[in-house]
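[Meeting: bench + compute handoff]

Bench side (C.D.) handed over the final construct sequence. Compute side (W.E.) agreed to return the predicted structure before the next meeting so the bench team could plan truncations. Sequence as handed over:
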Amino acid sequence: MKPIRLGFVGVGAMGQCAHLDNYATIPGCEIAAIADIRGDLAQKVATRYGVPHVFRTGREMLAAAALDGIVVTLPFECHGQVVPELYDYGVPVFTEKPLARSVAVGEKLLESLRRSRAKHVVGYHKRSDPATLYAIDQISSLKASGELGPLRYVRVLMPEGDWIAGGFSHMLASGQTAADMPVDPPPAHMDEATQERFDLFINYYIHQINLIRHLLGETFSVDYADPAGILMVGHSASGVTVTLEMTPYRTTVDWHEEALVAFERGTITLRLPAPLARNRPGAVTVFRDPGGSTPVSITPQLPWVHAMRQQAEFFVQYIRGAQTRLCEATEAIEDLRIAEDYIQKLGGQ
């Protein structure tokens, strides 16, 4: 089978340790080129991973390299400046979350995407964790069978903690700093303080907004934003209550992210590891109490693979035309709509 040739735009900390490091060891995947304005860093990374071609910009890379897909690991506030010209190449594009810095910029990206032959998926890696994959299959099965009654409630707990989990220990660095890159404007209807709060929210909690939607299988609306910024309450299109708890406490050397999916007569509990923890899946427990028999809890043994690695494998499969559970850009804009609504209810305009 012909190898999938990838080009990387951006090889900083996340570019190396969350993404390139995983793609470099996938059978049938070849890192053909990288582009980074920090030339010294780009060359160091290329030497370590055996990448034959180094460029300063994505535009230069696409003009010279034959690629099957592009992985962009730049700050999200640069997406509207960089990604549209990558669409013109007509191959699948992967970017980190969120889709963009605002709904307005996201909509412009989607307009450009529709005019091209490209596809675009957004890096919500929690969807690729083995525990999430198992949970989604169970939720779908229980909805179809009605065994435990209707879905009633989805809760996600997300305390601030050690998300790196030693994952930057092998990162290459250089004396160069990234030159100022042009960035997208924040939401125009927000004042400066609200814009800053919004940037922080979508950088940290947009993962959980997406996870809630994914577990529900539908979108949701925000009904209440706790003035302390700890609790968000909403309801789904079909009436399921949702809550997101944002750092009611903090951890220093651990990670306590979890989700509860409650049916009338049972639950699915999902516990996810730190984003950069390696070779460690999440854990999932399915509790069934349908009545008329002994209640049962099942906690399956999941494969030793981390979400970032499996996400990379899924993107290679996606390029080959396979169906995956990666998040399409056309869906990811909904996370920004929910985030903007939440911040407005929290005290914005």
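W.E. noted at the follow-up: DSSP finds ten helices and 15 strands in the chain. C.D. will use this when planning the next construct.
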